[in-house]
């Protein structure tokens, strides 16, 4: 195991503890800031995520956006592959997907132009630390190679880190939305 792998693992562990503490506070209204941001992109195909464990909940903002255009959620097709995105609607039938995240029962794939990205930690420069599978990094690289693709990190303020152990393959965020602010990079 490389030093960077160990450093990232330690950073993830600390960030997940901070995220859990923020999650336990049950701060209301975080999705309101996300809805405000998304209102400027009505109808643009986007992907959100179905929250797992202590992730911040984007579902109210996703439901609002779904009234104006396609909204999807990520589907993991396999190790080392980019994500695919299947159309989601509030109250649609779901099935279990990999890593405990539900996915729509019926696959209806499309390519989003905006990705609401879950994360473990972020920094003031738009760096993002995920779970370590590289799924979002591969996916953002692929989508950004085709067209402008906006990556919006959605997280609690407590998930901000002074600095993150990043690699050249880590795709930057364009923006982070938290329960108290919207930060553009």
Describe the structure concisely:
This protein has 185 residues and is an alpha/beta fold.
Could you please describe the fold and organization of this structure?
- This protein has helices at 3-24, 30-39, 59-66, 135-144; strands at 46-47, 71-75, 84-87, 94-96, 102-104, 114-117, 121-122, 128-129, 150-154, 175-177, 182-184.
- With 185 residues, it is of the alpha/beta class.
- It has a seven-stranded mixed sheet, with helices on both faces. Strands 4-5 form a two-stranded antiparallel sheet.
- The chain is globular.
- The mean pLDDT is 94.
Structural key phrases:
single chain, about 180 residues, alpha/beta, Rossmann fold, seven-stranded mixed beta sheet, 11 strands, globular
| Main sheet strand line-up | 3-2-1-6-9-10-11
User: What is the SS-derived class?
Assistant: alpha/beta
Number of domains: 1
Please bin the fraction of helical residues: 25-40%
Which architecture per CATH? Answer: 3-Layer(aba) Sandwich
**CATH superfamily annotation:** NagB/RpiA/CoA transferase-like
CATH topology: Rossmann fold
Strand content: 15-25%
Number of DSSP helical runs: 4
| Low-confidence segments | none
Q: Topology as H/E string?
A: HHEHEEEEEEEHEEE
Task: Give the radius of gyration.
Answer: 15 Å
Terminal CA distance: 32 Å
Number of strands: 11
Oligomer: single chain
């Amino acid at each position: 195991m490389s030093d960077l792998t160990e450093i990232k693992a330690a950073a993830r562990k600390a960030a997940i503890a901070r995220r859990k503490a923020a999650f336990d506070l049950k701060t209301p209204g975080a999705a309101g800031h996300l809805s405000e941001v998304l209102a400027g992109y009505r109808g643009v195909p986007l992907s959100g995520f179905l929250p797992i464990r202590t992730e911040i909940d984007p579902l109210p903002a996703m439901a609002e956006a779904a009234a104006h255009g396609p909204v999807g959620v990520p589907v993991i097709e396999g190790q080392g592959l980019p994500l695919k995105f299947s159309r989601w609607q509030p109250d649609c039938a779901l099935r279990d997907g990999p890593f405990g995240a539900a996915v729509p029962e019926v696959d209806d794939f499309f390519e989003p132009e905006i990705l609401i990205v879950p994360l473990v930690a972020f920094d003031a420069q738009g760096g993002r630390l995920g779970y370590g599978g590289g799924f979002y990094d591969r996916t953002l690289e692929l989508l950004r190679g085709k067209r402008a693709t906006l990556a919006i990190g959605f997280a609690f303020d407590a998930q901000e880190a002074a600095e993150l152990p990043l690699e050249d393959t880590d795709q930057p965020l364009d923006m982070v939305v938290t329960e108290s602010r919207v930060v553009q990079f």
